[in-house]
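Annex B. Sample input.
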Amino acid sequence: MKIVYPKLVEDAFVIATQRGQIAPEKANDVKSQIYQVMVEKGVLNELGEPTRLALEMGLIDDSEPVSDEPNLVVSLTDFKRQWPVYSEFEDNHFTLIDGEWMADAYVVKVLATRRLEDPTSTPKQRLEAQSMLQQIEDSQN
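Annex B, continued. Sample output.
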């Protein structure tokens, strides 16, 4: 059975194949991952329809239909499953804001500190971690 993916997924897949080798038997897995990321980022809704964000990002033009249907909110359990780095933290450290799960300052501090202490972190990752810690400190003063 052949799965039909939305045009944005197919377009992204073409770009991915131009940038690297994708084994033919892995094509469906890659397209599935692309689809999941596009839904998570809000470019496609759960039905695979492009959203206003896709239009604003220039991924589609004005002539294509746009879904005004908001993305379905993912449960915190599903969010933690998708982003395992957050799974160790208690649920009370997360808040749903505008349909997206946000971590509190405690979680950000712990993860940023780990990034700074990780010898495999890149200079850019360390700079971002320092910036997050500074922003938290500034907001608490």
